[in-house]
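Possible regression after last week's pipeline update?

I re-ran a chain I had predicted before the update to compare outputs. Posting the input and the new output here so someone can diff against the archived version. Not blocking, just want to make sure nothing changed silently.
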Amino acid sequence: MQEITLTQATAADAQLIHAMQCEAFLPLYERYHDDATSPAKEPVGMVEARLRDKNTVYYMIAADSRTVGAVRVVNGGAANGKQIYRISPLFILPAFQNRGIGYSVLQTLFSRYNDADIWRLSTLKQEKGNCHLYEKCGFRKTGAEIPVNDCMTIIDYEKKV
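New output (post-update):
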């Protein structure tokens, strides 16, 4: 079994995060052609801005000491006495997908952020593998759906701890 580790990213990691994000999301972009919403089409400045956001922590994901992706956790603050975190984005390089890495990353985040009452994220309704992963980790669809184009819909998930 591979060892999965999360290491907090710094501003110096922006280029690498951006390059991995583009590689990870390119197959989805090629499938859905979502020019306005695809992380594969974002400029590196968007990653740099997120890294500067005081409510954001990016983690580099490593499998057996090899960097294979990244995940961003956004502290959404407290609402009605509940601490909320949002995951956006979480991505694994295509060569390392479907190996349980995403599941391990989520379990690590859940234990690391033990003050969380609610976790939120969004994904593509058409990507059944992503939906399966999130549901396996305890996320439930909220019912919110945002059509992006004729073949792609973004859906929201929430996990109450």
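Follow-up from reviewer: compared with the archived run. The mean pLDDT is 97. Marking as no regression found.
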